[in-house]
Amino acid sequence: MRGSIRLGKIFGIPIGLHISWFLIFAFFTISMSLTFRDTTSWSIPHCWFLGAAISLLLFVSVLLHELAHSIIAIRNGVPVKSITLFIFGGVARIGRESSKPSAEFRMAIAGPACSLLLAGLFTLIWWPTHNVNDSIGELTAWLGGINLSLAVFNLIPGFPLDGGRVLRSILWGATHNYRRATNIASKIGKIVAYLMVAGGVVFLIFGDWYSGIWLAFIGWFLNNAATTSNKQAEIRNSLNGLFAKDVMSRNCALIPNDLSLRQLVQTYIMPSGKRCFYIADGDRLGGIITLDDIKKVPESDWDSMNVIQTMTPVANLQTAQPDENALDVVERMDEAELERMPVLVNGQLVGVIERDELMQLLQTRADLGVQS
């Protein structure tokens, strides 16, 4: 997610903190601190400290929720690219969707199950301590309630919330149709989103601005997420039955491998505006060079540096075969965060799958009502 601060890795998964997290952290800390000032006789610094502690532990809980999703995903062969904490909680970014409804169910239910487990854990800590230490009692009581609320909220059958994904997995298993299951779950997700917005308006009418704005905002966010998720499912469905040769571009002429960087810039890049070129090695693909590769080299060295010295060799590239399933190729591109992938036959370049061109092709097919 753009605008994120990298914190490190857990189980090999990069953990990030989106800049919007600081807004919700400050908001939640202030709200909790004011609550304690109104309901206890604690000092102001003590209220602030406990408010900040609850806010931090809340997002640790959210992180554990997302890690539960991620661990189950990895165990089911679904790669996890990163976890990012942001204003609405957290999001685990996966490299591709699960291939079976059973795996989807396990991945979706893992997060709420983790939150329920945390709610129980904090309650167990609260039980023997709340009469001994007021601060620990308040902290564990709030965190137990928040984690319970997080589990219940995520189990709402509104796609793409966890509950919506659980619903999709059940529908997928019953209908054996991923597209239909996603479409139904997305429609239910939109209904839930509209109800949230309507509920927010009701709160506003009765003067509860805080609850009204927050609920309406979440509803709006959920509606957009449901729409986006359904479009992604449509794209996945459009790729069914297609192969790499069906979606690749054949306009990918090789350039000589004896060019200097300056010759490449003046002869090929400037006249065409292209940012990526494939370099010949006889009649085979030798490698690929992009504008970003060239920009890493000082212009003063462009005359002395050869394209071979700057390119990414074919041995370091991910490539596809013409008869490879198009969906498998796109999922590999997503997993590796690639914008393009060469298609080779016996080392010879026969085409290139460009992400932008592929999306345009799929959009055109959708506009024409063409299915796979």
Description:
It is built from 13 helices and ten strands. It has 372 residues and is of the alpha+beta class. The protein has two domains: 4-155, no CATH class; 244-367, CBS-domain (Roll), CATH 3.10.580.10. Strands 1-2-3-4 form a four-stranded mixed sheet. It has a four-stranded mixed sheet with strand order 5-6-7-8. Helix 2 runs antiparallel to helix 3, helix 3 (101-129) packs antiparallel against helix 5 and helix 6 packs antiparallel against helix 7.
Question: What descriptive keywords fit this protein?
Answer:
single chain; 372 residues; alpha+beta; CBS-domain; 2 domains; 4-stranded mixed sheet; 13 helices; 10 strands; 60% helix
For the largest beta-sheet, the strand count, sense and barrel status come to: 4 strands, mixed
The percentage helix is: 55-70%
Strand content: 15-25%
Q: Mean pLDDT score, rounded?
A: 87
What best-fitting shape do the alpha-carbon axes yield?
Answer: elongated
- Report the total helices: 13
Counting helices, strands and paired strands, the structural category is alpha+beta
Question: How many domains in all?
Answer: 2
Unreliable runs, pLDDT <50, ≥5 residues?
A: none
Radius of gyration: 26 Å
Q: Give the strand order, joined by hyphens, for the main sheet.
A: 1-2-3-4
Roughly how many Å apart are the termini?
31 Å
Count of individual beta strands: 10
Q: What order do the SSEs take from the amino end to the carboxyl end, as H and E?
A: EEHHEEHHHHHHEHEEHHEHEEH
